[in-house]
TrEMBL record:
Keywords per UniProt: Cell inner membrane, Cell membrane, Membrane, Transmembrane, Transmembrane helix, Transport
Entry superkingdom: Bacteria
Name assigned to this protein: Putative spermidine/putrescine transport system permease protein
Entry GO CC: plasma membrane
Biased composition regions of type Basic and acidic residues, renumbered to the chain: 14-23
Source organism: Salinibacterium amurskyense
Location of the ABC transmembrane type-1 domain: 95-283
PANTHER family assigned to the protein according to its UniProt record, in alphabetical order: INNER MEMBRANE ABC TRANSPORTER PERMEASE PROTEIN YDCV
Amino acid sequence: MTLSTSNVDVDRAQRIQHERRMPGDAGRPLSQSRGVMRTARIGSTALMSLWFALPFLPLVLWSFANSWSAPDLLPMTLGVDGLTAALANGAVAAFGDSLLLSLIVAAIATPLGAMAARALSRRTLPFGRLVSVLLFSPVLLPPFAAVLGINVVLLRAWVPPELGVILVLVVVAIPYTTFSMRVAYAAYDDGFDEAARTLGATSRFALWRIHLPLIAPALARSAFLAFLVGWSDYLVTLVVGGGQLVTLPLIIASSASGIGNESSVAVLSLSAVIPPLILLAFVSRARNLNPGKQS
């Protein structure tokens, strides 16, 4: 009897000691794995940042190079001739036109894409698949052929070139905004709106104080995509605009087609990269607009 009792006590003591040792033993590999994953994320982020930043190094050097020829690795003479040439070619006016055009396209295409995505995700539209195909058809069609065909229609309808460029770019941007917002609405819970209406909120109050704040990050991403469509466009502005609307991509292409304009092209190219990077920084922090997500 004494032997069996002592064996039970020994087994209980070993089990208690094992249970006390488990958190430390289990926690150490877990913390080590988290540390390895964090190091891997930091390393991969640094490598990707370096990969995307390296192509901009020659642009920065060319922007301040008055003369740079082979086989020299660095510019022989530094200066601001590139900036002067870019300003003389109308870079400021082209920058302003591109910015205004992109903002208008984003302001129109984002709400249209959101409404289309909500209707498609709620399956309230008849012939939803056909509507989806029509919405995404601008991405599937050959750009040059589509722009030429649309340009003929706009010319016969006496549509002003500036308005025609806006209309075509909005149509091009809607597939991107619709897809982005459709992903957001697939995860959206209509119970928030219903709860607000049950508590006595009006439809306008529920829209502005409940619905829009919850989808604000998705709206920011969609607006960013629409902005990029207008900001980087060359073909639509060239063909439909007919020279009436001169944007930054047109100035860059015109300068790049010449010889000896490398510094000017570098300045213009850098100026074309800065606004999207600034907007991307804001979009990456758009999660703070969501009141339901803690930072």
